[in-house]
Prior knowledge:
Layout: H1 6-12, H2 42-59, E1 65-70, H3 72-83, E2 88-94, E3 122-126, H4 127-135, H5 148-160, E4 172-176, H6 178-186, E5 202-205, H7 215-224, E6 230-232
Amino acid sequence: MDGRSWADDLNAAGFNVWGFDFAGYGGSDACASSSVRPASRLTEVVAQLRRVITSVRQKNGDKPVLLLAHSWGASVAAMYAGTHPQDVRALLLFAPIVARTPAAVSAGAANAPAAAAPPPSVYPLSLWSQYRRFFDDVPRGQPQALSETHFQQWGAAYLASDARSGERLPASVFTPFGPIADIGALWSGKTLYEPALVTAPTLLIRGAWDSLRTDADAAKLISQLGSADKTDI
């Protein structure tokens, strides 16, 4: 935004920074829409993350990484940290999705696309759906967390990530359904990874207005992590 990224701030603080797109997102190869199952499920993308971290370690003196992840991606990062502890120096989980009993699922789950029968491999995600993600949880009377100008810039880049986005009505980007399927499984009480295996120092961050990741979610995950050094903010 305005010519500066989060990576720039981290670089300025002395970190070497790498970012990547899972298959089906951004600049990575698209997922095959003909697949008979949701694309990019947790176990599938952990293998992608392993390739990325192997490459990063080769480029960075073979140092273990400080792994930063958001939302569904936090489950990917936690699963990886638990199964490849030698690769992860520390873990930062921003707004992680946490397994719940079905009765504890918040009303905010209604914002997620409903799974078809059978579920699709990919689904179209419109700019309006993305807009709601930025603004739905802002309390009435509070200023917007993202300016309209910044959203327009972000939205143009988002639609440009799918060369055929303009052929759909409304304009939309084909997006892997696997993360939605994983979130549904977690909110149905299924444990997709074992938090107790995570032993790296872990920082968990949750926005005060976030309706999809509650304080109870954060407390539950913190209590389950195997890390001796863990903090919830």
